From TrEMBL:
Organism, scientific name: Streptomyces sviceus (strain ATCC 29083 / DSM 924 / JCM 4929 / NBRC 13980 / NCIMB 11184 / NRRL 5439 / UC 5370)
Protein's name according to its UniProt entry: 3-alpha,7-alpha, 12-alpha-trihydroxy-5-beta-cholest-24-enoyl-CoA hydratase
Span of domain Peroxisomal multifunctional enzyme type 2-like N-terminal: 20-152
Domain MaoC-like, residue spans: 169-224
Family classification: Belongs to the enoyl-CoA hydratase/isomerase family.
């Protein structure tokens, strides 16, 4: 079996130093649509947007933690952890949780520890929970959990894991926001570190079962937070 759950869970965390600067933050913000306002036509120099794009007044969105230092929490590198041997074309980023322990600085250096926190058997797929814990000299900064679906790798009789389902709310929404998606949105967003060819290479996307490259889920995740 390409996924050995016991071996993956028992593996020592991979640790390393990561660093980022204001340019990385600005590039990430542009990748999730900074420079335009969802509620009104406005120039890229609108003060509400400059706080995401101008280094002299830079406000770091918490979701920057999903790409800081190494891109989406070590997802591709995590697929080479002990006990994990899967086909990248069968991989989908299915969920994300993020805990911010302190406001993120616009530049910094920290230590990141990556490990497989859980392996679930969903029948037709396996789910890997890849956890990244990041701390600097002052203490914890953030904890990232990426839920990675690996199609075709379930069915070994393991723990199915949580199966909570969110029921859609009734009634009218409190607010509706429409956000335009650029044709090159995925190409811009991937410059922050998520190099999965599913988001850029048409041939790879077809092999993975898609008509064309798809937009990163973490891109719309960041758009929603912004």
């Amino acid at each position: 079996m390409p996924i050995d759950a016991a071996k993956a869970l028992a593996a020592e965390p991979r640790t390393g130093e990561i660093s980022w600067n204001s340019k990385d933050v600005q590039l990430y913000h542009l990748g999730i649509g900074a420079g335009s306002h969802p509620d009104k036509p406005s120039p890229a120099t609108d003060p509400d947007e400059l706080r995401y794009t101008l280094e002299s007044r830079l406000h770091v969105l918490p979701s920057f933690a999903t790409v800081a230092g190494s891109g989406s929490p070590g997802v591709i590198s995590g697929l080479s952890m002990p006990g994990i041997e899967v086909d990248l074309a069968k991989v989908l980023h299915g969920g994300q949780s993020l805990v911010i322990h302190r406001p993120l600085p616009a530049q910094g250096t920290a230590t990141a520890a990556h490990r497989i926190a859980a392996v679930y058997d969903k029948g037709k797929a396996a789910v890997l929970v890849m956890r990244t814990e990041v701390a600097d000299a002052e203490g914890p900064l953030w904890t990232n959990d990426a839920q990675i679906f690996v199609r075709g790798e379930g069915g070994w009789g393991g723990d199915r894991g949580p199966s909570a389902r969110l029921e859609p709310p009734t009634g009218e929404p409190d607010r509706t926001v429409e956000r335009p998606i650029r044709e090159d949105q995925a190409l811009l967003y991937r410059l922050s570190g998520d190099w999965n060819p599913l988001h850029a290479d048409p041939e790879f996307a077809k092999v993975a079962g898609f008509e064309r490259p798809i937009l990163h889920g973490l891109c719309t995740y960041g758009m929603t937070l912004k």
